[in-house]
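Q: Could you predict the 3D structure of Ankyrin repeat protein 1?
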Amino acid sequence: MSLTVLMEMAWNGDFEGVKANLKEVGQKNEDGWTALMWAAGYDNTNCIPLLEKELGMQDNDGGTALMKAVWRGHADCVPLLKREIGMRSGDGQTALMVAADEGHINCVALLEREMGIQDSDGLTALMHAIFNGHADCIPLLERELGIQANDGRTALMLAACYGHTGSVRLLLSEVGKQTTKEYNDFPPGTTALMMAAHYNYPEIVELLLPYEQGLKDSKGHTAQWHANNSLEGGDYTRIRELLENEGTERVPSPNSEPLVQECINKQTTEDESVKKELTSLRAALDEERKEISSLKAQLAKTNEDLSHACKDSEAVKRELADQKARILALEEELVRLRTKS
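A: Sure. Here are the predicted C-alpha cells for Ankyrin repeat protein 1:
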C-alpha cells in the first residue's frame, strides 16, 4: 500500500512532519484514503486541524475520516470531524451505523444527528448494533424503535435471529410486526417468534410467545410449523414443548421505556464507577508525578554539589601543582647556592 510522506506523518501523529508536507494535502492512495483518514483512524487529533482541507473526502467505498475514527472508537476525534456528520458510504451507511456495529457507545452518543437514517437495505444504526449483540447501545438509539428495513425486518427480529436474549428483552415494544418481503428463505409475514423458533432459541421463544402466538406468515404457517420444519439441526424438544399448544390469544406489546430506563440506569452506575476509578488513578498519577519531580530536584541538587566538588577538587589539584613547582624551584636554588659555596 503506497503512502505519501504526508500520510505517513499523519499516521504516526507527527505534527511537525504534517506541517512540513502540507503540499501533499488532498492526495489519496490506491484505496482512496487521505492523510486525514490516517490521522483520524489512529486517533492523532493533533494533526486533524492541519488537514481540514480534506474534510468531506471519501475513500473508494465511500468511507470518511469520521467513519475511520468511530470504527476504532476514537470519540475525541468526532468534534473535530463534525462537518462529516450525515455523510454516507457507498452502501448508505453513516458514521453512527459504523460506531453501533462496533459497539462504541462513546461515539454513538456523539452522533445523535444521524439517528433515523437507513442504509441501502433499510437497516438503522439500532439494527447494526443488534447484529453484534451490543445491547448497551439500545438506550441511546431508542428513537429508532419500530423502524422496519426494506424487507420489513425489525431490530427485534434481528435479535431473535441471532439469539441475543438481552436485546430481545429491551425490544419487546416491536412485537407483532411482520416482514413484508422474503428474507433468508422466510416468506413475507414472518415474525420474530417464528425466527427464534426456526433457529432454536427457547428462551426467546418463551419471551415472545405471549405477544406473537398464532400469527401466520404469507403461507399460513405459524411459529410451531417453523420449529417443526427447521433444517438447522439440534435438539428442538424444548421449543416444541413451548409451542405445542400455541394459541391465538395475544397480549398487547409492552412499553419498552421501563426496561430501557433500567438499562440506562445500569450504564450510568457503571459510568460513575469508572469515573471514580479514573479519579483515583489520576490522584495516584499526580502523587507519582510529584515524587518524580522531587526526585528530579534531588538529582539536580546532587549534580550541582558534584559539580562544585569537582571544581573544588580541580582548585586543590592546581594549588598542589603550584606548591610542587615552588618546592622544585627552592630545591634548585638550594643546589645552586651549595655549588657556589
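Q: Anything worth pointing out?
A: The chain has 14 helices and no strands.
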